[in-house]
Amino acid sequence: MASTPYASAGDEDRTGLWSRRPRFMTWSLLIYAALILWAFISLFPIYWTITTSFKTAVNVTQGHLIPFVDFTPDWKGWRSLGLSPDTISAPSTVRDEFVRRFLNSIVASAGASFLAVIIGSLAAYGLSRFSYKFLWMRNKDISFFFLSQLILPPVVLAMPFLVLYKHLMLLDTLIGLILVYTLMVLPIVIWIMRDQFDTIPLELEQAALVDGCSIWGAFLRIVLPIALPGMVAAFILSVILCWNEYFFAALLTSSNAKTLPVMVASQTGSQGINWWSMAAIATAAIMPLVLVGIFLERYIVKGLTAGAVK
Amino acid sequence: MASMNIENVGKVYGSLAVIHGVSVEIPDGEFVVLVGPSGCGKSTLLRMVAGLEPISSGDIRIDGKVVNDLPPKDRDIAMVFQSYALYPHKTVADNMGFALKMRGDDKATIETRVRKAAEILDLVPYLARYPRQLSGGQRQRVAMGRAIVRDPKVFLFDEPLSNLDAKLRVQMRAEIKELQRRLATTMIYVTHDQVEAMTMADRIVVLRDGRVEQIGSPLELYDRPANIFVAGFLGSPSMNLIKGRIRAGATPSFETDEGIVLPLNAIPAGSDGQPAYYGIRPEHFTLGGPVETRISVIESTGSETQVFARLGQQKIIGVFRDRVEGNTDQVIAMTPNPALVHLFDGASGLRLG
């Protein structure tokens, strides 16, 4: 290397780099410090929840934080759920309830998301492809009208829904929950899907029409497959929103259709809140979402940025 | 293969009419080019033929059958779009075979037909690729392949070459023309490029503002343009149109607005003193002679020399095979060949004689 005529030039470059090094290092240090701080802020609640599920009452009240150092982990929280190693094979009513709530959560969020993605995609396709006029509202106003539903705090809808559901006999049913969740996530799905469809050139459908498709055929065979990443993203986002929903679940369900968030909140015993069992249920409840986040994150990103990057 | 009749077809958006009663008859196997400046309605007309745009008035017939209300899928037409409109989630083979699949052909037929089309278009090595893995020219071929596998009654092309670079465009132009000879199918081709129109068409339809200006073979239109629009639109550089008056006298002549006299062979009867345009193509000047102009710029492409000059106050262009040299404002004599002059009415712009 040293014998090549370029060696000296290379050395010069390197000294140049070294002279710039301190500033460069300061910047990266600052950036990494900020990132670490943010990661800590994001991850600490999860750490706290998981460790709390292994604490006893004393450890909770005394604020012990680090397992094996300032407290000895205990299966107490998980045992109360019937999910600790020593109770997992024994019959447990709490575990049965937990499984029921868990399944309720899955059915409610997956069902609502599925429904919302189907209805929302159709609505979004219409808004993206055809011109509507409803009273004074055009496509843009209609889209905004959908989104504006999110501005309204859910509390405003509480009483009407309670009365409505009572008359329709939908109180404490999964169907009722699915319907209200569908309504809740529909604006977001429509918004995401409309962006998706807007990025698909109209000529593709026209080519499909010329190639022998009907309008529905062009939608199902050409548009849907191309919009699939967006649909997956919208579906996942809806599942997350529904999974974590507490307000309507607490309001509209009592025993049959109760979901996990309601069960988490109801972990109060005669001596106050059972933090350990609440933490154990919460841990079990966020696990599916953590898995979704880890394995499907790239689909979400791909779907949400499909329009931005060609 | 089919004949196509466009009869008095009109298109109205709300209160805005964009196509005013256009009629074109296309016999079986003819290559017709619709040409015109942007916004002239040529693409709209093509899309109306395809069935992608409803017709406001008139009739479109394919093989004598009115297709006004038939959806595109029932018209048996194939269309090549400007953006190619390839299905991004399908391979080249699936893109080309899609129409056949929709038609219900069996797998073996689809495969043989796709393969045959791919051979014609040199696409065999790319059949398993996706559109995003192809170059612009290859995508263009796939779009063509998607049309030809079907063996439709009519091919429609909507500016298919405008996204290609100049060299590829010339090459594809020849290939499309050859393909048309080979398939002998009726084709309607839309372009704004008059060179494409001149080189490819059996017949050209010149459109402006939703009206037909002239229909005819390329050379008919070039040699006898019906009005100053067609005269100026076809040919590059475009025809010189010099304003002035016709003078009868002992020998007929043309006097420009500045009083410069240009030669004429014959004039229509009773046109003495009539305001008119004196149309002369740049290549129909000869160097020398009585007409003197002042040079603005001289550009040489090597094979020919373009002289941009002023005749009085009016700008003219002459194109010569000979090398011409000269400086700005220098006087150069170039005289129109009186046998090749076109006269147009000064008011209506229509051809005289």
* Shape-level CATH architecture of the largest domain in chain A: Orthogonal Bundle
Distance N to C terminus of chain B:
38 Å
CATH class of the largest domain in chain A: Mainly Alpha
Strand content of chain A: under 5%
Instruction: Name the CATH superfamily classification of the largest domain in chain A.
Output: MetI-like
Number of strands of chain B: 20
Count the DSSP helices of chain A. 12
Please name the CATH topology of the largest domain in chain A.
MetI-like fold
Average of pLDDT of chain A:
84
**How many DSSP-defined strands of chain A?**
2
Largest sheet of chain B: 6 strands, mixed
- Tell me the quaternary state: heterodimer
Query: What does the average pLDDT of chain B come to?
Result: 91
Neighbour order of strands in the largest sheet of chain B: 6-7-8-3-9-10
One letter per element, helices H and strands E, the order of chain B comes to: EEEHEEEHHHEHEHEEHHEEEEEEEEEE
Span between termini of chain A: 43 Å
Derived structural class of chain B: alpha+beta
Largest interface comes to:
A-B, 16 and 22 residues
CATH class of the largest domain in chain B: Alpha Beta
Q: Uncertain runs of chain A with pLDDT below 50, 5 residues or more?
A: 1-12
Instruction: Give the neighbour order of strands across the main sheet of chain A.
Output: 1-2
